[in-house]
Amino acid sequence: MQSSRIAEKSTPYWWEAAPVQPLPEQPLAKQVDVVIVGAGYAGLTAGLTLARAGRSVAVLDKMNPGEGASSRNGGITSGNIRLDYAELVRKYGEEHANAIEAEGKAAREFIYDFIRNEGLNCDFSLTGRFYGAIGKEQYETMARSAEKLQKALGVDSYAVPHAEQRQYLGTDYYRGGTVRMDIGGLHPAKYHAEILRITLAAGVTVHSNTAVQSITKDATGFRVETAVGTITGRQVLICTNGYTDGADPWLRRRLVPVRSRIIATEELSPELMMKLMPRKMMCGESKVLGYYYRPSPDGKRILLGGRDASQSGDPAAPTVALRDGLIHLFPELADVKISHSWFGNVAMHRDMLPRIFEHDGLTYATGFCGSGVVWAPWIGSRAAHKLLDDDQRKSAFDFRPMSSIPFYAGKPYFMPAFIQVYRLQDRIALARATR
């Protein structure tokens, strides 16, 4: 059974207002200063930065620009760092850990300034995010973290006890939660389209349906062989993230593409939307495989996403699971239709931090671990400054490459088993939680 029998459409809800499409065909330049592989948020933001600094830039994408994760994600400006502070200190030392934490705040501020200063029409709203606790113990831990965040970084963050929860979210499922007011929502496909618009206006050449087949060093820099011809560049920046393919087997051994699926409801009444999402916040929860969800920018639908264990085709089961999760949160939606169900790849890796690094002379900006709305433009821009030898804008995420994964060459055969383990961990945590 196909998901189309459950959802009316299997294409992203975001494509209704901002469909991805090929750019007009144009010949490849023989040589440019910088060749960028990947025309998502990271590649385009890097190209924009470089072009405005006077570099000639060509961006190559094997699909249409933005057709991958950039137009498929939830549009939440979370900028999550997967490792907690204690783990960051253990792995990288206190000074580096502090720099990473501080850069999370700087990255969000960069995005918001970017949207405002460039006049990007992407339905952005700084709504805040509610994060639900599955038990009283989780609530106490989250409340302390919110207090620490407020004191350490000046982020407007606070705890919401269970008794006040319905003022923020119309569900009784959680046992309280926390709010961060520096997180908001946008329309991801419009956001990408607007970045593409200003990048093209800056003089960057962007090529659709131009798959890179190989990259080799030559006397002038790098020779990039593509499906439509050859281009050389003094520098090359790789921004393929969850859509990395066999053209770069070294990177492919380090990034695991994981499906993330989102469903959208049909339009709901204003009264029901006000009951379920009274503050129109972005939302998440304290589970390993927690849902992320939000109102649509027009406030008429609820979109809910989570990890998808499937690896091929478009099976029905992941859509059913998300629909069941939505109804578990909001029983009022039991009879509501699902209008859209779609998926895209996020890129996970062993170190679980966004990264800028070099290998064999190539520069990489990748590994956003499901938080690319914030991290991809930030890391892309920082990588561009790296290519410009701008040491004043060096990133805390600019260090060694992530580790390779043993016995892995690009097909994540182990992910279904990992997903089941994570689900078991969530069931155990829920069973042990004080409800």
From TrEMBL:
Keywords: Oxidoreductase. Residues 33-384 form the FAD dependent oxidoreductase domain. InterPro entries: FAD-dep_OxRdtase (IPR006076), FAD/NAD-bd_sf (IPR036188). The keyword Oxidoreductase applies. GO terms for molecular function: oxidoreductase activity. One of its GO terms (cellular component) is cytoplasm. Coiled coil: none annotated. PANTHER family: FAD DEPENDENT OXIDOREDUCTASE DOMAIN-CONTAINING PROTEIN (PTHR13847:SF281), SARCOSINE DEHYDROGENASE-RELATED (PTHR13847). This is Oxidoreductase. It comes from Pollutimonas subterranea.
